[in-house]
Specification:
Elements lengths: L1 H24 L17 H8 L4 H7 L4 H7 L7 E3 L2 H4 L6 H12 L5 E5 L5 H10 L5 E5 L21 E5 L7 H7 L8 E5 L2 H6 L11 H4 L8 E5 L6 H10 L5 E3 L11 H7 L5 E3 L7 H5 L10 E3 L7 H8 L7 E3 L8 H10 L7 E3 L8 H11 L5 E3 L8 H7 L8 E3 L4
Parallel strand pairs: 1-2, 2-3, 3-4, 4-5, 5-6, 6-7, 7-8, 8-9, 9-10, 10-11, 11-12, 12-13
Helix pairs in contact: 6-7, 11-12, 14-15
InterPro entries: F-box-like_dom_sf, F-box_dom, LRR_dom_sf
Protein name: F-box/LRR-repeat protein 7-like protein
Pfam families: F-box-like
Length: 415
């Protein structure tokens, strides 16, 4: 009996020794312990992670450690920069800081930049022209300006710009600045001029100023393909006629919320700009006779937005049935868009290429006619907007949704 006990004790001691030897080679970790960390990732992986973050977050991460600061300063993270605090959260406190950033951090990598009014000076623009030779897109926000900087010493400006956006002020005349940059922007292909429509609605009695001279501007930008004049209260048909006389390569014209535009120049526009494919006229003051006078059959139009333009049923039928092949139609908020209009469009118009349609708040369309139209268009339809039509029932959507095999976007709120 004593021998058996001794054998067991010997075996136990041997097992303990083997376990101790094993523990020397294997470190036991607690279940929540992670053996990997960001410190062990290669710099190029951390750089890739940072590239998905907004710049304000990258700025915070730069304070974590020296390694992260070096990565955060990599110019590859700063190819598209917005210095408007209300947009990006970034605020540059002084011109000296911005000039240093342009030189050391942005450099040739910079492709796009947004500048608020306080940073738009001749010194900054000179530095961008000299150091950021690949800059192709720029936004200049003058919307809050009460006074411009002195641009008499502005002698250079980025010359490779393909896209430029200028947010206009209500009261500041831009001619002094624009005159200085005319010689540098003849390569522009896309121009956005953003007006102050919302402010004008609030202050209807205030006088409207023509703060930028479009008649002079058009001579400096002959290569424009896209023009967006949004919410500019002084823009009328004469400005569009002036643009069309020099910008014959125009492919897209957007005049949304330009309430003085009536459409009287549309016939001339299409005769001059044979490549025009997209026409966006939301919330304009279109007149029936002007639209019916256009030779729509001879156009190359594929995108049309006439939302809230208060056209008659007769005019809508006349226009829609003569356009050769629309791919996108936005005709919402139109009391004149009735069942008769939709039926005529189906019977006499070309809807075969229509892939997106917006009939928002067209309450004069019946459920039956919409159902008939969508059954015909369902296979091609990728975008559908039918919000604000309260009489569309649940059964309507139960019927139509299974037919929309290729749909990407649907808006159906009753509002």
């Amino acid at each position: 009996m004593w021998a058996v006990t001794q054998d067991v004790s010997s075996a136990a001691l041997a097992n303990i020794k083997d376990s101790a030897h094993l523990n020397q080679n294997v470190q036991i970790r607690s279940p929540g312990y992670c053996t990997s960390s960001l410190d062990k990732l290669p710099d190029k992986i951390i750089l890739k992670i940072f590239s998905y973050l907004p710049h304000c977050e990258i700025g915070r991460l730069a304070r974590v450690c020296r390694k992260w600061r070096m990565i955060a300063c990599d110019s590859r993270l700063w190819t598209h920069v917005s210095l408007r605090p209300e947009v990006s959260g970034l605020h540059v406190s002084s011109l000296e800081t911005l000039l240093a950033l342009i030189s050391m951090r942005f450099g040739p990598s910079l492709r796009y930049i947004e500048l608020p009014i306080e940073l738009i000076t001749h010194t900054v623009l000179h530095e961008l022209a000299n150091k950021c030779v690949n800059l192709s897109s720029m936004l200049l926000d003058f919307s809050t300006a009460m006074q411009l900087h002195d641009f008499n010493d502005l002698h250079s400006f980025p010359t490779k710009l393909r896209t430029m956006c200028i947010c206009l002020s209500e009261v500041i005349f831009m001619e002094g600045f624009m005159r200085k940059i005319y010689n540098f922007i003849n390569g522009l292909e896309v121009l956005h001029l953003i007006g102050t429509y919302e402010k004008a609605v609030e202050d209807e009695e205030e006088e409207i100023y023509e703060v930028v001279n479009i008649h002079k501007l058009k001579s400096a930008i002959p290569n424009l393909r896209v023009v967006n004049l949004f919410g500019i209260n002084f823009v009328d048909d004469s400005h569009v006629e002036s643009l069309s006389s020099n910008c014959i390569q125009l492919e897209c014209l957007a005049l949304n919320f330009c309430v003085k535009f009536t459409g009287s120049v549309l016939r001339v526009l299409f005769n001059r700009c044979k490549r025009l494919r997209s026409l966006l006229l939301q919330h304009t003051n279109l007149q029936d006779e002007h639209l019916m006078n256009v030779d729509w059959e001879k156009t190359s139009l594929s995108e049309l937005d006439i939302t809230a333009s208060e056209l008659s049923s007769e005019c809508l039928i006349n226009v829609l049935c003569r356009i050769p092949a629309l791919r996108y139609l936005s005709a919402g908020q139109q009391d004149g868009f009735t069942d008769v209009v939709l039926k005529e469009y189906m019977d006499k118009g070309n809807t075969k290429q229509l892939i997106a349609i917006d009939l928002d708040r067209n309450e004069n369309l019946s459920e039956e006619m919409l159902l008939k139209f969508l059954k015909q268009q369902a296979f091609n339809c990728k975008g559908l907007q039918l919000s604000g039509i309260p009489h569309l029932t649940e059964q309507f959507w139960i019927t139509i949704i299974p037919m929309l095999k290729n749909i990407k976007f649907v808006e159906c709120k009753k509002k």
